[in-house]
Design a protein that fits this description.
The protein is an alpha/beta fold. Helices cover 39% and strands 18% of the residues. The chain contains 14 helices and 18 strands. The strands form five sheets. Strands 4-10-9-8-7-5-6 form a seven-stranded mixed sheet, sandwiched between helices. Strands 13, 14, 15, 17 and 18 form a five-stranded antiparallel sheet that branches. Strands 1-2 form a two-stranded antiparallel sheet. A hairpin with a 2-residue loop joins β1 and β2. The longest helix has 21 residues. The structure holds pyridoxal-5'-phosphate.
């Protein structure tokens, strides 16, 4: 299929709006993506025509809503190539997926003195839940070190693994550096010590095809809103043999088999982990988004974004005083940078604010990765991140605007 980005852009109404009288150049896709019309329409249509609570109704609408919700689970399963829908848990997003896992895994498998491994480049949501669990359990958090270029040191990683290591949690793609980590190696090394691995896929699934069986990860988390789906929905994939061994995260309706005041027994997978009314509108819209990107083709999206990223990096590197973080060649759709003028740093907030006035949406700050900022020795960066609808012309606008801003200082 020909990848016609201008045609694709027409699916996203927001992209044709202006900000401050300038055409919007939306380069904040790592934070959240814009929604194609089909996703919004799926939500509106379900609210208007199908809405009813799922799983517990005998009536027509409830059954219809349940069918859509469970068909969505199957769409997610297919998208990730999980073995069964029992391995697909709906959550509110990556953050909740990791909190769920850190809590349940901690309850079942972590004791005082045990160890958990994360990497230097984790988002706070793949640090803090583990830290909270470590505090509760008296466990220890260890960190895979990273080179100046943004490469995780796998030799050091292997040395961190001990008989006390209980789980490894690592991001697939850094939300700051765009570096694609060698997660297959990370998983293989952990498995050779019988240690399970969670991969934070928040920044990978929107950009290239992911196959959880091929990765052989034990758990995988992602957010709907970063892959053109709605907010408030995400997924935790877990191998059935692991999920079977974990206790529920929250109690309530749906996650039970039988309840008496003396004892409650829990439902089967995946419902054991889905207490309360799920966001069945969002699950359906997420499935619509996954169908949308699948129709475009994840490989086509990946190629388009890679071309854009390399083009942007080449052009940015020609700007005097430009410093790009994370220069490993395995880089994906995210460019963090700082700019110096006559040896003086232009503060990321000033740069971001001035770019905003020129119509360009970028993100500034620590990007919820403070430990990584400490490692890089910076307070914050400006981050431009691409989605399937960005164009070379938008990169040109970014470059020209950065040059304009430089002249203002
Ligand atoms: N992990 C990574 C790598 C991220 O980039 C993000 C969001 O930026 C998250 C986790 C958290 O995602 P959410 O806020 O959707 O739960």
């Amino acid at each position: 299929m020909m990848y016609d980005v201008n045609k694709i852009r027409k699916d996203f109404p927001i992209l044709s709006r202006e900000v401050y009288g300038k055409p919007l150049v939306y380069l904040d896709n790592a934070a959240t993506t814009q929604k194609p019309r089909c996703v919004v329409e799926a939500m509106v249509d379900e609210y208007y025509n199908v809405n009813a609570n799922v799983h517990r109704g005998v009536h027509f609408l409830s059954q219809k809503a349940t069918d859509l919700h469970e068909a969505s689970r199957e769409t997610v399963r297919r998208f990730l190539n999980a073995r069964t829908t029992n391995e697909i848990l709906f959550t509110r997003g990556t953050t909740e997926s990791i909190n769920l896992l850190a809590f349940s895994f901690g309850e079942a498998f972590v004791n005082e003195g045990d160890e958990i491994i994360v990497s230097t480049m984790e988002h706070h949501s793949n640090i803090v839940p583990w830290q909270m669990m470590c505090e509760r359990k008296g466990a220890i958090l260890k960190v895979i070190p990273m080179s100046d270029e943004g490469t995780l040191n796998l030799d050091e990683y292997e040395k961190l693994l001990t008989p006390r290591t209980r789980i490894v949690a690592c991001t697939h793609v850094s939300n700051v550096l765009g570096i694609v980590n060698p997660v297959k190696d990370i998983i293989n090394i952990a498995h050779s010590h019988d240690i399970p691995v969670l991969i934070d896929g928040a920044q990978s699934v929107p950009h290239f095809a992911v196959d959880v069986q091929d990765l052989d990860c034990d758990f995988f988390a992602f957010s709907g809103h970063k892959i053109y789906g709605p907010t408030g929905i995400g997924v935790l994939y877990g191998k059935e043999e692991w999920l079977d061994k974990l206790p529920p995260y929250q109690g309530g309706g749906e996650m039970i088999k039988n309840v008496t005041f003396e004892k409650t027994t829990y439902n089967e997978l995946p419902y054991k982990f889905e207490a309360g009314t799920p966001d069945y509108i969002a699950s359906h819209a997420l499935a619509t988004a996954l169908d949308y990107v699948s129709t475009l083709g994840m490989d086509n999206i990946s190629l388009h974004e890679q071309t854009l990223t390399h083009y942007a990096i080449d052009r940015m590197q020609q700007i005097d005083g430009m410093h790009i973080f994370g220069t490993s060649h395995n880089k994906d759709a995210v460019i963090s940078f700082q700019l110096n003028k006559d040896g003086n740093l232009i503060h990321h907030l000033d740069l971001g604010t001035l770019l905003d006035r020129l119509g360009i949406a970028v993100r500034t700050g620590h990007h919820c990765a403070e430990p990584l900022m400490h490692r890089l020795g910076v307070e914050g960066t400006v981050r431009a991140s691409f989605g399937l609808y960005n164009t070379k012309e938008e990169v040109d606008v970014l470059i020209e605007s950065i040059q304009r801003v430089m002249q203002m200082f």
